[in-house]
Design brief:
Helix content: 40-55%
Order of helices and strands: EEEEHHHH
Low-confidence stretches: none
Structural class: alpha+beta
């Protein structure tokens, strides 16, 4: 089994006291494990986000937020077929056929872009 997926908070990967499994509903196969955060992790993430918002360019630069959204959409799109072929979504359709690809995310990014 692969490494446990952790939380990215305050510029570093963090664990939590609980580890859960991601199960493929179509096969029952364990796909991986992840740090199952609770109230403490939520509070830490909120505090880190507040600090980042208050002390970085993120809050004042819409183009930076737009760039981050587009990068995220590109990364999802690049791995959409991999996710679909895993069987997790109980489909063998391609990202284009399913609408799962980054194109729908890119459309959302475009509507969130500064005018």
């Amino acid at each position: 089994m692969s490494e446990i997926a952790k939380h990215w908070m305050d510029g570093e990967w963090t664990e939590s006291g609980t580890v859960s499994e991601s199960i493929n509903p179509a096969t029952g196969e364990v796909l991986g494990q992840w740090a199952d955060g609770g109230e403490a992790e939520a509070r830490a993430a909120i505090a880190a986000a507040r600090r980042a918002f208050d002390t970085s360019h993120w809050s004042r630069d819409p183009s930076l937020r737009n760039q981050a959204l587009h990068e995220m959409a590109d990364r999802f799109e690049a791995r959409a077929d991999e996710a679909l072929s895993s069987g997790y979504f109980n489909s063998r359709a391609s990202s284009e056929e399913s609408g799962f690809g980054g194109c729908s995310l890119a459309s959302s990014c475009a509507s969130a872009s500064p005018r």
